[in-house]
Amino acid sequence: MSIWLDFLGAEVRYVDLPTYGRTRIAEAGHDKAETLILMHGIGGHLEAYAKNVVALGRHFHVIAFDYVGHGLSAKKLDIEYSISDYVEQLRELMDVLDIERAHISGESLGGVVTGGFAVRYPERILRAVFNTTGGIPIVSEKGYADLRALGELSAKSAGQQPSYESVLARMQWLLYEGNWNLLNEELVGSRLAIYSREDFQASAPLVYARLRKVNQDGAKPDMIELEKVQCESLLLWTSHNPIHDVAAAEAALPSLPRGQLYVMKKLAGHWPQYESPEEFNQVMVEFLSTGRVAE
After folding, report:
1. 244 within some domain
2. Which own/partner contact pairs does 193-197 have at CB distance under 8 Å and 24+ positions apart?
3. 3-state SS assignment for residue 92
4. Which end is more exposed in the chain, N or C (fewer Cβ atoms within 10 Å of the end residue's Cβ)?
């Protein structure tokens, strides 16, 4: 199935935010009472949720969006691309769309933003899903090796014009090897088209500065203040998540006051929403509707 068919039934449009400018969103389920906002990882874009927006729109008012500096949203060159910037972009998006409270789910960097938003604006979040999130301690040698591999991959691409092969290699890092058949020409090509744009080439050094500081300068990564997250929360994990393996999620869980851990049954890597959309969507509906999910 193509991305176009995946999004059939969703509305893709732009909204203007006071600070962060033109922001692309994909939206479904306008008539549903509760809103669910989906956020991608660093260097990503809303197509990461191609297989979820319409399906979850049968249960929630769903919005996936491109961060500032990402996808087809504005490429600002006068911000730091800090976690605080992404948190404030989310807050501005909710304000502009007149959404008072929402379920928030973020993958990788999106999980860190989810945590930052939950701590800063606890009154505006219903339930939180930390989908293979960053921002928790690494607890295994394999996790550190995965981080070094990501740093080497990023360094190799820095300052280079992207190619189909370089984008494919980066996306293979995201998916479990057994799911690489999902990385078809359309999915890789759409990311290559975004990465090849002049505006993305201008913003990318700023977007990736956080990652570069961690990998090259030994800076401490942004961490989620898990103990301050007061809403019901789900650590949604996979068997082959790079850097933060299942052991890392198990170690982080006791710090979440109202947290639960769910490990996907299907083998998957860093993109469970794309690698196993049926299971991901079912778990999301169950948790966001009840606050619990069956083990």
Report:
1. yes
2. 194/45, 194/71, 194/72, 195/162, 195/167, 196/161, 196/162
3. helix
4. C
CB-CB contact of 288 with 127 (8 Å): yes
Cα→Cα distances 259→122, 141, 228, 255, 271, Å:
15, 25, 12, 8, 21
Beta bridge partners of 39: 65, 106
Residue 81: give its domain's CATH number: 3.40.50.1820
Q: Are 49 and 57 in contact (CB under 8 A)?
A: no
Query: What span, in angstroms and rounded, lies between the C-alpha atoms of 116 and 43?
Result: 19
**Taking the C-alpha atoms of 96, 101, 103 and 109 in order, what is their torsion angle to the nearest 10 degrees?**
50
Q: What is the pLDDT of residue 276?
A: 98
pLDDT, tens digit, 9 for 90 and up, residues 196-207: 999 999 999 999
Give a yes or no: residue 215 inside a domain: yes
Separation CA 151–CA 225 (nearest Å): 24
d(CA 87, CA 194): 23
Structural domain tally of the chain? Answer: 1
pLDDT at 217 > cutoff 80: no
Q: Report if residue 110 sits inside a domain.
A: yes
**186-203 in b/e burial notation, b at 16+ Cβ within 10 A?**
ebbebbbebbeeeebeeb
Q: Which domain holds residue 28?
A: 3-290
